[in-house]
Amino acid sequence: MTDALLSRIEIRFLDAASNPRALALDAPTAARESSTIRDGIGISANLEHALGGTIVRTTIANRGGDTVRLKSAIFEVSTGFAPGAPARFFKHGYQSWSASGGHVVAAAQTHPRDTAHFITRVNHQSETTRPPEFPEAQTSELFTIVESSNASGRVLAGFIGAATSLSTLTVSSPEKIVARAILDDVSLAPGAHRELDPLFIATGDESAARFAARWADATGRWMNARVSAPFQRGWCSWYHYFHAIIEDALRANLKSLEAMRSEFPLDVIQLDDGFQSALGDWDTTNAKFPGGLRKIAGEIRAAGFKAGIWTAPFLAARDSRLMSHHPDWFIMHAESGEPVRAGHNPNWTASDDKFAYALDASNPAFRAHLHRLFAKLTREFGFSYLKLDFLYAAAAPGRHHDPNLTRGETLRRGLEAIRAGAGDDAFILGCGCPIGQAIGVVDGMRIGPDVSPYWGSTASGAGDPSTVYALDAIIARSFMHRRLWLNDPDCLMLRARETRLTADERAALAATIVGSGGMLLISDDMSLLDAEAGKLFRAVAQIAEEIDSNCAQEPVLALDLMTNGDVRGLISKNADGGAIAMLLNRGDAPARVDRSDLKLGTAEIVALDLAVDEKIEIFDTIDLPPHSARILRVSR
Ligand code: 9PG
């Protein structure tokens, strides 16, 4: 196949009179630094062959006499595929909870979110309203991969840095990928320049998942990803207690976990949503937690665990001290002048409106508050594991305190303030977080939507939390683990009572989590777990650690990243030429997989059915009941 080529860079901006303008640099080449200048605005691009592809570094300079405002930088990439070729592209989701997967190019002009409520769009898209030429249905976030059944090879285009802007890639037709850095009307003063995040373009014959891992490798390196934290095992209050968690229930679980240490060897005990006195006031508790946070952290630590706590640091509700004392710390709606709504939850506030508002991390006074708050939670109270949730709120659109920061920069500054306050030793877990901006700041990242004590329907119900969508994401984003951070696939639920998950479904959740090599958190009332559950936990913990330890060398890869059938899988190769694979049947009908389809050669394969703790030698086929999974051990 032909090489993918960068055919054009275009900068879109508003001049001093707010007229829309554009400046293009055509056919930049690697031979020299290409540049163009017109009306005082200059673009220079440096193309470098590296990592088996091309890295494009672009600088925009204002050499005129007036301040301009930058809208976007557009990069047109020719894929080499024919315009009419049948093709698919990988639509990567915006934040932790947003879905990722392969789609047919040009199949859809509209997307269900086009008509969704603002809160849904601010959650799952880098722009609440897409420009008409970049429709949501054809747009991926941060990177994409394009393939065609008519031609060999695949094309990847993606930003390998994300510190300075949100970015998208639109594939409206197979022959072209349009990459775009979103610059949010930031001003560029006379004499100033702005360097854009680097864009990586590559072609290759490797699988889509391996290609994605190559992108993650490059991005992790460019952004100094934090990938060396030890394997994490913990307990989280959310998926059994939800908002109803009370101090005594937490304490009872702490006692159980202390007593069941050998059955459930865990390191972290993390209190989730439900303790705070108000959304925004993270250092004080409500009546359900009379002892207060310092005491709780002390008890967790005295029992020999790391203490973890949930916050949503960029959200606040009207009845919080934060919002009443600092109404000027919010992102404001450009027209109405009201604070921007970024969440809605009746459990979060007694205020009539039930909205959660987006805080403005471009404001240094708010960042100083974040620094103090997280220094207090860690150094004073003793929490060393911080689950930071609903982080997309920091990138909400609207009027900001500092017009010189993009939304991507605003989010990153906010995260950096939290890291500075919490210190280098705290384990920071991002959640609900746009994927690029957190790299190098967080140690772990939720890479999918919430699990739930309910499987969900593969036919309908999209949007409701249900375990099946979480499994899809765990598989689609497995390649990120130990390249961008430690992946948090969300929690295991092992309880057989007070759940709608069947034994097969619980085992499928466990198999998919451990098959990904990611963090291992359980979320059960420990008094509901018996010796069987303990046995299952120890079995999966051992496999998870083994897969995690392979990850420094070999990423865990989806068996097929670009398709979305009912049978999906993961494979982790080890150093001796063997592998551990996971096969999932997410569908409602039984499935049979031919071992030849797995392309594992003539190796010996033993399947482990976690639900019944049974080992089965695999000859020609593997049978998977509906909503079930198998761990396969493949020896050379
Ligand atoms: C606590 C929970 C847990 C969970 C997080 C996050 O769109 N929504 O309304 C929505 C609500 C909750 C949610 C995700 C989305 O879950 O992922 O682990 O911490 O918050 O409220």
Overall number of structural domains: 3
Q: Helix share of residues? A: 10-25%
Distance between the termini: 33 Å
The CATH class of the largest domain turns out to be Alpha Beta
CATH architecture of the largest domain: Alpha-Beta Barrel
Mean pLDDT: 95
Total beta strand runs? 36
Strand residues, percent: 25-35%
Number of helices: 11
Rg of Cα set: 24 Å
Please give the largest β-sheet.
9 strands, antiparallel
Shape: globular
Walk me through this protein's architecture:
The chain is α+β, with helices and mostly antiparallel strands. The chain has three domains: 5-205, no CATH class; 233-550, TIM Barrel (Alpha-Beta Barrel); 557-634, Golgi alpha-mannosidase II (Immunoglobulin-like, Sandwich), CATH 2.60.40.1180. Helices cover 20% and strands 32% of the residues. β3 and β4 form a beta hairpin. The radius of gyration is 24 Å and the shape is globular. It starts with a strand and ends with a strand. The mean pLDDT is 95. The structure holds 4-nitrophenyl alpha-D-galactopyranoside (9PG).
Which descriptors apply to this entry?
636 residues, eight-stranded parallel beta sheet
Short description:
The protein is built from eleven helices and 36 strands.
Secondary-structure blueprint:
Elements (H helix, E strand, L loop, with lengths): L4 E10 L5 E7 L7 E5 L2 E10 L2 E10 L5 E11 L8 E5 L9 E4 L13 H7 L14 E3 L1 E6 L5 E6 L6 E8 L2 E13 L4 E3 L3 E6 L3 H15 L10 E4 L1 H4 L5 H13 L8 E4 L4 E3 L2 E5 L7 H10 L3 E6 L3 E2 L4 H5 L15 E4 L10 E4 L5 H17 L2 E6 L18 H16 L4 E4 L13 E3 L20 H10 L9 E3 L14 H13 L4 E3 L8 H20 L6 E2 L8 E7 L5 E7 L5 E4 L9 E6 L4 E5 L2 E4 L3 E8 L1
Parallel strand pairs: 16-17, 16-28, 17-20, 20-24, 24-25, 25-26, 26-27
Antiparallel strand pairs: 1-2, 1-6, 3-4, 4-5, 5-14, 5-15, 6-13, 7-8, 7-10, 9-12, 10-11, 11-15, 12-13, 18-19, 21-23, 22-23, 29-30, 30-31, 31-36, 32-35, 33-34, 33-36
Bound molecules: 4-nitrophenyl alpha-D-galactopyranoside.
